[in-house]
Amino acid sequence: MTAQIEKELSSNGVLRLTLNNPQRRNALSQAMIGALHQAITDASISSDVKVVVLSGNGPAFSAGHDLKEITAARSNDDKGRAFFTSLMSQCAAMMTAIVNCPKPVIAEIDGIATAAGCQLVASCDLAYASDTSRFATPGVNIGLFCSTPMVALSRNVSSKHAMEMLLTGDMLSAADAERMGLINRVTESTSLKALTQEVADKIAAKSSLTLAIGKEAFYRQQEMNLPKAYAYTSEVMVNNMLTEDGEEGISAFVEKRPPVWRNQ
């Protein structure tokens, strides 16, 4: 059986995870969700991995949940309730694992990213797309509001933009997705991988410890009010300054030399 996820690790620590079920448009089936969750978990604890890039084989980044799998579950005695509950729980845990991963996770989109596939893009720390890519939360068109994709989407774009996507189900161009803040940058398909790799390489050259500290603090402070956010991040800064890499980075800057990171 073909692997749901292809893995490729570069010498500088950039791990490329490629969704690999193009025949099903890289749908987030239970198998795909499980494979991706495991890959993110493994990357989180691997000292060899500095940055994760997430892409998709074929014409779709991901078309969202596997509707054929969902339809098949309706024949169960409970009309699918247990399966649907398990599927949503597993998907939420996988999306949360991306946010909680101490390594930066970059989405590379060359094709459509719809419903839970759009949620996957929004869950990543950075996102770059080809100019032919398209984005949507179209559940409303089939009587199924994209409630779980809404969680990640509404944490990336303004409320008005999120609600427009959720209420209309319309497909957005890559240019519109960039304008709204869902993705960082748009480029030609032939240049996409090079752009993503350039950004990943730049990040991989930083202190892994510093990146982990910063990523965790970024998401934690978002849910705090202003005084709590400043109190929390002030403590984070103090602890960061006391790390070996914090001391090395400042010393290297003052001494006008490249830093040597120990990730400690």
TrEMBL record:
InterPro entries: ClpP/crotonase-like_dom_sf (IPR029045), Enoyl-CoA_hydra/iso (IPR001753), Enoyl-CoA_hydra_C (IPR014748), Mitochondrial_ECH-domain (IPR052377). One of its GO terms (biological process) is fatty acid metabolic process. GO terms for molecular function: hydro-lyase activity. Keywords: Fatty acid metabolism, Lipid metabolism, Lyase, Transit peptide. Pfam families: ECH_1. Coiled coil: none annotated. May play a role in fatty acid biosynthesis and insulin sensitivity. Belongs to the enoyl-CoA hydratase/isomerase family. This is Enoyl-CoA hydratase domain-containing protein 3, mitochondrial. It comes from Grimontia celer.
